[in-house]
Design brief:
CATH topology of the largest domain: MetI-like fold
CATH architecture of the largest domain: Orthogonal Bundle
Number of helices: 16
Low-confidence stretches: 46-70
Distance between the termini: 12 Å
Largest sheet: none
Shape: globular
Mean pLDDT: 78
CATH superfamily of the largest domain: MetI-like
């Protein structure tokens, strides 16, 4: 197992390199980079001053098909702006310099926030962890028992009406459900029971420890509820179908023929095999809820987390933040996938990834 773990860790390096290279090419090809945005902003505020910047009055950049030249931008000013953002070097040099920096976990500074990428990620991380951790915990604590109950009572009235509720919950997007919760319970039109923004109250530092805990969870009720809806439905049906598939196998019939109780059969034999597919979905659920799935939830509830940070960086073409967060998210996703494989072995020791690879 040790050699398997080492091989998987070694495989992370080319995987990260390939993902970063692909995204670098795509983002570099996208129009409207930071240089263009800076020039547009300066033209909007400075007007013809651009033609005078960088040295008294002399010539514009010759056209030659360059759209920047047609704006009347002095070549020295253009070179200065490109150097400021690191675009005075060829693309391949910038990419390999970025790879070398990332190998030392140096992600650089944001173009627009005047702070390092690491500082920004650390600042936003508590919000995304709060949403992702509690959402994942609730999803698994509710979905697995409910899925097992639905599998055992397949076709019953309980199974039918819970399936109806699950389908409705799955059909409603999380952000739409978030708006509905605000309208109903956060002072939108009816009741004002829960806060509608932020992770804590403005006087959080003045509260006692019990009141701080209460305030924190009180702010999380609505965003976590909205975040749980989609994952809850998916995992419940996945658990049910997985258990139904195992219950119909011969070893379950044999176990029942030996006189084992329903509980012994279910949790002594079926559970271990049926949970494998549920465990396999865990890394995807974690990554989605931590970094991507909560984007609109963060916007609606004014929660400044990693999802919102990445979205704003993409809009502003803040390349250090885009690539830095992409690297961190990808690395965490790959490590979580390895943890998932190790959990496979913990649940069912008969699984041996090392022998399969051999």
């Amino acid at each position: 197992m040790g050699s398997y773990i080492l091989r998987r860790l070694a495989l992370i390096i080319p995987t990260l390199f390939g993902i970063m290279l692909l995204n670098f090419i795509i983002i570099q090809a996208a129009p409207g980079g930071p240089v263009e945005q800076m020039l547009a902003e300066m033209q909007g505020h400075g007007g013809s001053a651009l033609t005078r910047a960088g040295g008294g009055g002399g010539g514009e950049v010759s056209s030659g098909g360059d759209s920047r030249a047609s704006r009347g931008i002095h070549p020295e000013l253009l070179a200065e702006i490109e150097a400021m953002y690191g675009f005075d070097r060829p693309a391949h040099e910038r990419f390999f310099q970025m790879v070398a920096d990332y190998a030392r976990f140096d992600f650089g500074d944001s173009f627009y926030r005047d702070r390092s990428v690491v500082e920004l990620v650390i600042e936003k991380l508590p919000v995304s962890i709060s949403l992702g951790l509690w959402s994942t915990l609730i999803i698994y604590l509710v979905s697995i028992p409910l899925g097992i109950r639905k599998a055992v009572s397949d076709g019953s009235r309980f199974d039918v009406w819970t399936s109806s509720l699950i389908v409705v919950g799955y059909a409603i997007p999380g952000f739409l459900f978030a708006i509905l919760l605000i309208v109903l319970f956060a002072g939108g039109s009816y009741f004002e029971v829960f806060p509608n923004s932020g992770l804590t109250s403005s006087n959080f530092d003045e509260l006692s420890w019990p009141d701080k805990v209460k305030d924190y969870f009180w702010h999380l009720v609505l965003p976590v509820t909205a975040n749980v809806i989609g994952g809850f439905a998916t995992l419940t049906l996945l658990t049910k179908n997985s258990f139904l598939d195992e219950i119909g196998k011969h070893y379950v019939v044999t176990a029942r023929a030996k006189g084992l109780s329903q509980r012994q059969v279910l949790y002594g034999h079926v559970f271990r095999n049926a949970m494998l597919i549920v465990i396999a979905s865990m890394p995807g659920v974690l990554v989605s809820l931590f970094f991507t799935g909560s984007l609109l939830i963060e916007v609606i509830f004014s929660l400044d987390g990693l999802g919102l940070l990445g979205f704003e960086a993409a809009l502003n073409r803040d390349y250090p933040v885009i690539f830095g967060t992409l690297f961190i998210f990808t690395l965490m996703g790959l490590l979580l996938k390895l943890v998932s494989d190790l959990t496979y072995v913990a649940v069912d020791p008969r699984i041996d990834f090392e022998s399969r690879e051999g």
